[in-house]
Every structure is written in structure tokens, then in C-alpha cells.
Amino acid sequence: MSTPTPHNGAKLGDIAKTVLMPGDPLRAKFIADNFLEDVTCINTVRNMLGYTGTYNGKKVTVMGGGMGMPSIGIYSYELYHFYDVDNIIRIGSAGGITDDIKVRDIVIGMGASTNSNFAAQYQLPGTFAPIADFDLLRRAVNAAEQNDIKVVVGNILSSDTFYDDNKDANSLWKKMNVLAVEMEAAALYMNAARAGKKALCILTISDHVFTGESLSAEDRQISFKDMMKIALEAVE
């Protein structure tokens, strides 16, 4: 039986209605190994590992999405349109921007500002505001509260550039109270909106853009586990 796309080796029915999508495929493997039961590897194409299993009896898939909006744009589009996925929750790392955001904080992107031209494809007569699905956001916040995990909800930046030639860029976003910077959420939110599906981005602050503070490998693993637990608890 052939697969629906050249980028995903999963067959129809292999992927759950909800997909957790870290950027790093090895993080997907970590979640599958440590959180899921009855796990099956459903994709190895391009080493973008994907696994389907159960969490508290609920079927869930975890699959890498890569770095940047072109990468998550392809994978999320195909999941929504060709694999009948309803919900994608991105779980990743981010750099803190505002003064009140610290390393180890967990940020949920209610909105995703961007310097990307991703929305140009829709030929809209104005500026589109990429936002999370409220139901997913509410479930994630409730899961955090029930597990006594602090989260901060607000606007994030999805940047096309990791190394930006404009050295003032982050300072300008900081003036607008943008909490943190990452590289994928805006494309995910736009794909979800266009497909009539749901998306959410949950981030762990691994470093701070202005203070230079960063997590150790051990601290990062602990904090990322909290983020993973929130995402899994948010799955219906």
C-alpha cells in the first residue's frame, strides 16, 4: 500500500487525531519511550521519526517537525490534509525576550507574530494574525494548573532567521511585549486556520536573548518533561 505523501511513511490510520510535534525527531522518540504505551514507529522517512501509542488510554502520535516554518509547514499541512489529523501541538524550545521571562519557564503561544512571508500565499487583503486554538489552549492551561506547573500565556515570535543581521530586531519585538522567540508556530497556526483544524504551541525557555542565561542539559531535560506532560494531558 502506498503512503499519501513522499515525506511520511505512515499509512492511513497509523496516525492519531492529535499529534505532538517537537522539532527534534529524537525528542519524539524520547516521548514515545518514556510516556507512551503500546508504541509503534510509524515514520522513519528522512529520519523524521514518528510514533503512535497511548497515553492514559488515549491514542496519540508524536512526530518531529524539523526546524523552521518551511519544514513544519510541510509536515503539518500533510498531517491535516492527507492524514485527517485534527490537532497538532508543537512542543519546543525558545529564547526568552521580555524581562519577566526566565529560563525554565513554560510559555504557551496565544498568538505568533512573525517576520515570515508565509501568509503571502493566501493573497489576503490585509495582515493575518496567527493564533492558537482556544480549546487546546484552555486544556493546556488547565493541565498545567492541575499538575502545579507554572505557565505564561501570551504572544511569541516565529522568526525566519536564527542569525539575524538586524541586531536591534529582538529589542523592537521586546517593546511589543513579545515573550519569546522560536521558528515554527506561525506557520503551524496558519496551516491550521486554512485547514479548519486546531493547533497550539507550548515552549520551554532554554535561554534568554538578552541576559545570556541558558539551561544546563540536566535542567533542560527536567523542564522539557513538564512541557511534554502538559501537552499529553491536553489530549482528548
TrEMBL record:
Its EC number is 2.4.2.1. It catalyses: a purine 2'-deoxy-D-ribonucleoside + phosphate = a purine nucleobase + 2-deoxy-alpha-D-ribose 1-phosphate; a purine D-ribonucleoside + phosphate = a purine nucleobase + alpha-D-ribose 1-phosphate; uridine + phosphate = alpha-D-ribose 1-phosphate + uracil. It comes from the Bacteria. A purine D-ribonucleoside binds at H7, E182, M183, E184, S206, D207. Keywords: Glycosyltransferase, Transferase. The keyword Glycosyltransferase applies. The active site is at D207. One of its GO terms (biological process) is purine nucleoside metabolic process. It is an enzyme of class 2 (transferase). Residues 18-221 form the Nucleoside phosphorylase domain. It holds the Pfam family PNP_UDP_1. The keyword Glycosyltransferase applies. The record marks R220 as: Important for catalytic activity. GO terms for cellular component: cytosol. GO terms for molecular function: purine-nucleoside phosphorylase activity; uridine phosphorylase activity. Phosphate binds at G23, R27, R46, R90, I91, G92, S93. Homohexamer; trimer of homodimers. NCBIfam families: deoD, PRK05819.1. Catalyzes the reversible phosphorolytic breakdown of the N-glycosidic bond in the beta-(deoxy)ribonucleoside molecules, with the formation of the corresponding free purine bases and pentose-1-phosphate. Belongs to the PNP/UDP phosphorylase family. This is Purine nucleoside phosphorylase DeoD-type. It comes from Mobilisporobacter senegalensis.
